[in-house]
Amino acid sequence: MQMKRVTWTNPSTAVARNLDFGFAPAKVEIWDLTTPNRFEWTADMADASVFVLGTLAYTTTNGVTPLDQSARFGAAISGFTNAAPGVITVDDTASFGFAAGDTIKVAQLADDGSADDSLNGEFTIASITATTITLVESTAAYSVYVSGGVVSRVSDASGDPVATENFAIEGVALGTSAVGANSASMVAIAYGDNPVT
């Protein structure tokens, strides 16, 4: 049987989080070591549900949802402004390690072809937030963003190449009903059905 243990400490305001186990869990136990409390989910339960052992309550929202993502090599793009400098809106920057000075590659993006320069290509990061990447370059004269696209790191600020890595998660998303108390020390133990050889 597969088994993996993950530990973390919640921030001062506990928030939903993804846990990557590397396999599809059949059962997940979540322990709040500070309160104390325990949450449990099995694959037989509905997505987003959780059983709270401390109160013997079964919750059907904001609980545990299985995640089995296909290969993911970069952040998904949802917007790209034609401006000086250009700004890319993405789903997440932290998971991919983006930093100022990195060279990034934009690929699989649809633009309207209205200019000679496509938004697909390599750019340099000036700054980042949780969901935006501001470029060093101006994209004011580029074609206009239509949809899709992925942005990935090519090299770091020193110019050293960044290895391609699959950031897909095989595990669970913990909603606010299962994530535990504010500032709590947490442990999750996942069990899978597949034998370990």
The shape, in one word, is elongated
The total beta strand count reads 14
Structural category is mainly beta
* Helix fraction by DSSP (H/I, runs of at least 4): under 10%
Low-confidence stretches: none
Contiguous helical run count: 0
Portion in beta strands: over 45%
Report the major sheet: 8 strands, antiparallel
Radius of gyration: 20 Å
- What is the mean pLDDT? 91
How would you portray this structure in words?
The model has no long low-confidence stretch (mean pLDDT 91). The protein has strands at 2-9, 17-20, 27-32, 37-42, 49-52, 57-68, 75-81, 87-90, 103-111, 121-128, 132-135, 145-155, 170-174, 185-192. Strand 4 and strand 5 (49-52) form a beta hairpin. It is elongated. The chain folds into two domains: 2-69 and 169-192; 75-155, Ubiquitin-activating enzyme E1, FCCH domain (Elongation Factor Tu (Ef-tu), domain 3, Beta Barrel). The chain is mainly β and 197 residues long. The protein is built from no helices and 14 strands.
Give the tags.
197 residues; mainly beta; Elongation Factor Tu (Ef-tu), domain 3; eight-stranded antiparallel beta sheet; 49% strand; elongated
Short synopsis of the structure:
By secondary structure, the chain is mainly β. It has strands spanning 2-9, 17-20, 27-32, 37-42, 49-52, 57-68, 75-81, 87-90, 103-111, 121-128, 132-135, 145-155, 170-174, 185-192.
